[in-house]
Write a structure and sequence with these properties.
This protein is an alpha/beta fold. The chain folds into two domains: about 160 residues, Response regulator (Rossmann fold, 3-Layer(aba) Sandwich), CATH 3.40.50; about 290 residues, Alpha-Beta Horseshoe (pyruvate-formate lyase- activating enzyme), CATH 3.80.30.20. About 45% of the residues lie in helices and about 15% in strands. The protein contains 18 helices and 17 strands. The strands form four sheets. The protein has a seven-stranded mixed sheet, sandwiched between helices. Strand 13, helix 10 and strand 14 form a beta-alpha-beta unit. Helix 11 packs parallel to helix 13, helix 14 packs parallel to helix 16 and helix 16 packs antiparallel against helix 18. The longest helix has about 30 residues. The radius of gyration is 22 Å and the shape is globular.
Length: about 500
Amino acid sequence: MKALLFVVDNPPNMRIKAGAFGISQPLGAGYIASVLRENGHDVRILDNSIRHLGPEALRRIVQDFKPDVAGFTTFTFSAKGCFEAARLMKEADPRLITVFGGPHATYLCEETLADPAVDVVVRGEGEMTMRELVAALAAGRSLEGVKGLLFKDAAGRIIRTADRELILDLDTLPLPAYDLMDMDKYYASVNRRFTDKKFGAIITTRGCPFQCTFCSHKMFGKKLRTRSPENVVNEIEHLISRYGIGELIFLDDTFTMDRKRALALCDLIVRRGLDIAWTCNTRADDASEELYKAMRRAGCRGLHLGAESASQEMLDRMKKGITLEQITNAVALAKKHIGHVVCGFILGMPGDTVERARATIAFAKKLSPDYVTFNIATPVPGSEIYEDVVAAGLLDTTQAPWEDFLELFSPSPPVLTLSSIPAEDLVRLAKRAFREFYFRPPYVWSRLAKMRSAKDAFEHLKGLAAIVNYELCASARKAAAAASGRRP
């Protein structure tokens, strides 16, 4: 069979962020493409986040390729675009079977299936489910024997099959189908960019045992599953030799969660003599001299740390499982051994106040990492705070403006007010946070001193443009709303 795996273009209110924060290879689609090809199917990946094709171009691709199945990876902010693309593709070829997967389709499977453009929903991990789904379609068999699905039968009844077991041995998966991606078109954000070499992304773990209330972490389970160091380093070698990749981002939720494995992986990178610069996400309670030294030797040039708040009470309410002392220590160790650290903070979580938000802004400046992000709390599907607002009747999941479920650089006020801070005050605080951190004269001079080239300066200008555009868009929307007498 022919399968087209579609990655939707970013919505307009996301493009500011994408321009500053980079676009990574669509690894989810890449893994599914590899599994399907192993089973003899003809697969293409169409990543519209880098191609930006319009409706007519998409129609022509469907009419020329004539796929039997079109797969869509849905995130909450991009769900609307996926629905629109699926409708367009079905108009171009009515026999096409559309399959929706990814976090949004998993957490809101019934709402997703309710859209007329959706034929099948894949719940949870997609590789094995897609393999069996496409095989069943090719053989003309019923889908009721395929685990992990939600679909409508010929009579219009909703069929939910048994849950799919998680893949315990991730080493059994083939490498993502990088050859189906335009590898030169992907780029890292300014706060993850350390060389002028080609950029790649890699995932080495799935699952998370932590219970942060703002995170939608259930799709891959609570148990950490890891790829072996040998398997990961083989992929790194493949990316270097085949595609000339010289810089990587590890997209794991927490690369350092299994300390022993992280050390072994770093040691293997060094022993194989791989020249690769990389960044990863970490937790404050994972920080240590030994680990950070080993990571630096293996090419780590930057860490992304979830600091979240300056209030221990807020950290506890978020179920973050870290202390302010651990955050301070981790940032200090990262500066000492890695040399570059980015901290993320959240404003407007349940229990937050204007005073606590201001303290968080002050804490960020005191820590003085290389970069910060200030996210506005958003109840994304799959998170505990989402479940709370739905249970309280505060959100209609059938009519929610999913494209506005953005946490960073959204020109709109938050979709829901989760704290005592009014929506407009929260937007003002977020804008103030960016201004106070990034426009401090000592910070500006420190960034100028670290610029290596004209290209580096251009990348920094893109980040500055994102902040300025955020300020202008938010102000424009507020003015328009005031003029029309409605909520921004």
